[in-house]
Amino acid sequence: MDAAVRTEPSAISAPLVSLPGVSWAAIAAGASVMMAMTLLLLALGVGLGMSVVSPWAVSSVAPTTFKVGTGIYFLVIAMIASGLGGHLTGRLRRRYSDIHDNEVYFRDTANGFVAWALATIVGAAFLASAANGIVGSAVVASATNSDANNGPAAIYVDRLLRPAANAGAPTSTSTRDEAQMRGDLNHLLTSALRDKRDLSAGDRTYVADTVARQTGMGAPDAQKRVDDVLAQAKSDLDAARKATLQLALWLTASLFLGAFAASIAAAEGGAIRDRNWGVRTTA
Predict the structure, then answer these.
(1) CA within 20 to 30 Å of 19's CA: 60, 83, 188, 204, which one?
(2) What is the pTM of this model?
(3) What pLDDT, on a 0 to 100 scale, did the predictor assign at position 16?
(4) Are 227 and 174 in contact (CB under 8 A)?
(5) How many CB atoms lie within 10 A of CB 85?
(6) For residues 55 and 60, what is the distance between their CA atoms, to the nearest angstrom?
(7) Angle at Cα 35 formed by Cα 32 and Cα 38, nearest 5°?
């Protein structure tokens, strides 16, 4: 009579319970790591940026170099933060059962992508909240401060009314009248710059007459100053527009890179998870 063969179940060959395709616990953990690493690297970037920017031209980097360096650093932040968070998302996800390897790869990649999306949405919400708080404080401050010297076009009003050398005596005005006059100029320039349009002929004549009266300049010189200041304002506005455009492009590129890094890292983390699943080591 043959001896009975006794077999014991193997932990590795035991059937596994199929799990949902989306693991929100792993996704939340990965997204949290992405946001924390992004904040840490941004703080480091601010410190590095302040260390290379100086008001003295001889000891500061060129503006173009600084902008390109900032954009490249955005890409580095996206790659490091998203890669680390995506890897953790894949490693923390439970192993799948009775699913083809291609489907496992897709699900791990999708979990990493969802973790990146969650981190992006939550991070944008926090940034929007902070921006709203800053804007709200600015609105309250402007509502409680009626000084006409404050405003987006105040610097150009100051340039218009700057005393000129070898000019005649300016017309004396009271403090209240001067504040009203500055407020009118600030409003005209702000409206024109905001709407990206030139001053009308009547507004331009009014500004030139005001400059001539307040500085003692002749009409031709006052008109020339108005033209120069408006040209400088347009140049500054165009430079700000280009800087904003470049920043938006760099941010878009960093978002694409972050999504790619999180997805690939999650898939690689899932592959390591599957290789280590059920393998026991002895200390």
Answers:
(1) 83
(2) 0.66
(3) 47
(4) no
(5) 30
(6) 7
(7) 145
66 touches 52 (CB < 8 A): yes
Q: For residue 104, what are the CA distances in angstroms to 20, 89, 99, 215, 265?
A: 11, 14, 7, 76, 14
Structure tokens at 142: 């402007």
- Residue 236 · residue 185 · CB < 8 Å: no
List the chain residues with pLDDT less than 50. Answer: 1-17, 131, 134-135, 137-148, 283
How far apart are alpha carbons 90 and 85 in whole angstroms? 9
Residue identified by tokens 């500004």 is 207
User: Within 10 Å of residue 238's Cβ, how many Cβ atoms?
Assistant: 11
Contact 148, 183 (CB under 8 A): yes
Cα 185 to Cα 206: distance, rounded to the nearest angstrom: 9
pLDDT digits (tens, 9 = 90+) for 1-37: 444 444 444 444 444 445 667 888 999 999 999 999 9
Structure tokens at 105: 């790869």
User: What is residue 134's predicted lDDT score, i.e. its pLDDT?
Assistant: 43
What gap in Å lies between CA 204 and CA 209, rounded to an integer?
Answer: 9
Which amino acid is residue 117, in one-letter code?
A
pLDDT confidence of residue 55: 55
DSSP one-letter code for 57:
G
